Amino acid sequence: MRVVGLLSLGLMGLVGVVVGFRLLALGWRTRQQPELLIALGLLLAAVVGAPLATLGRAPGIALTPFGSAVFAAGLVAVQMGIAFFCIFTWLVFRRDALWATALMVFLVGLCGVEWLGIVQASASGDTLAVVLPRTRPWGIAIVSTLAAVFAWTGCESLAHYRRLRRQLALGLADPVVANRLWLWAVAGFATVGLAAVIAGCMLAGLPPLRHPLPLMAIGVAALTASVCWALAFLPPAAYLASIRRRASVASP
């Protein structure tokens, strides 16, 4: 079970890398902001930030000046990635809504506050046994913000997907776009589930990757998000053909 869960997390990271670089290239070529925001969010949070933050806590360098700098740099990347996902949701779905603008500004600001809080807490002791209990509340806050951002983007994607479904019945919408919105919504909710499990383990003081039940839940969520990302941004031709075929049969 541990191997399966870790493989699912590894797959999520691999898909995130491939999708991130592909969207980065696409966004750089077309200068389209949504593609760039998703790409930067994936690459900064999953490819740069998480590995650097983990390295900064590695035995032998944890709490040294070098380890602390690496840990802080990794968290900067993680928080910037979360912020980019938040800006993407606002830009694509609710840029004209005042409440959404306020929510976006609040969440982006919260990312900065959380980074400052966890870095200061990390400097409040000389050993991990002292530091970790002090940084845990900030870690839970970061994971909770991640869950909030992906819950928002999931709800917005699902709402737009439902509107497109009504248009699809009249042949007025692109079935591939509708399907991509649905996949993005499912991936968002899967990420919320993953974050919830991690936050729950942190509250209980349990290492989530060492216990079979949370690891299984994390693995299922990671696998779900990976499959949805791959089908949304790296879809096989046969998959796209099947979507269009079903839409043509359902249309009047």
Describe this structure as you would to a colleague.
The chain is an all-alpha fold and 252 residues long. It has a single domain, classed as Rhopdopsin 7-helix transmembrane proteins (Up-down Bundle). Helix content is 85%, strand content 0%. It is built from eight helices and no strands. Helix 1 (2-30) crosses helix 2, helix 2 runs antiparallel to helix 3 and helix 3 packs parallel to helix 5. 38% of the residues are buried.
CATH topology: Rhopdopsin 7-helix transmembrane proteins
Number of helices: 8
User: In the CATH hierarchy, what is the architecture at level 2?
Assistant: Up-down Bundle
Q: Which class best fits the helix and strand makeup?
A: mainly alpha
State the CATH class: Mainly Alpha
Main sheet summary: none
Q: Specify Rg, calculated over alpha carbons.
A: 19 Å
Task: Give the N-terminus to C-terminus distance in angstroms.
Answer: 48 Å
User: What proportion strand?
Assistant: under 5%
Helix content: over 70%
H/E element order: HHHHHHHH
Low-pLDDT sequence parts: none
Instruction: Quote the average pLDDT.
Output: 90
Tally of discrete structural domains = 1
Number of strands: 0
Shape: globular
Structure keywords:
85% helix, 252 residues, Rhopdopsin 7-helix transmembrane proteins, 0% strand, single chain, mainly alpha, globular
What is this structure, in a nutshell?
This protein is mostly helical and 252 residues long. It is built from 8 helices and no strands.
Give a topology summary.
Blueprint: H1 2-30, H2 33-56, H3 65-93, H4 98-122, H5 128-168, H6 175-204, H7 212-233, H8 237-250
Helix pairs in contact: 1-2, 1-7, 2-3, 3-4, 3-5, 4-5, 5-6, 6-7
